[in-house]
Description:
66% of the residues lie in helices and 0% in strands. It is built from six helices and no strands.
Amino acid sequence: MSTSTIRIITGLVLIIHGIGHAMAFFPALNIFSTDKWHYRSWLLPGFLGDTVSRVLVMILFGAAFLGFITAGLGLFSWLVPHSAWQTLAIISAVVSLVALGLFWNSFASLFPNKIGAIAVDVATLWALLGSGSFSEIIKNL
Length: 141
């Protein structure tokens, strides 16, 4: 597979993954929620009030949303310096994992939404921080 093909696929995955984080906005903004899909933290159930929970969901998932989209755009050198895409992708993956850890029910279903998001986050971190030939290919995009 050529480098340009890998760049296109990686950039599109980052952008689509970023857009997927918008799913958490629905319960946080009271657009739609259920007993299983909501903005409350399962890890800190009585500690965070509704307002703080909503704000944290919006901040964490919003940061991942913007971060992954800008990382993908940076990979294509569109509106964002190319040199920033790796840092943006790493930070966004960490923020996404923290957001999912704290607000597990902000995503609608277990698979593919939650498991898929974790898989992309872990793959991003592995590809950019791990060792091996694949990491070198991704770092040179």
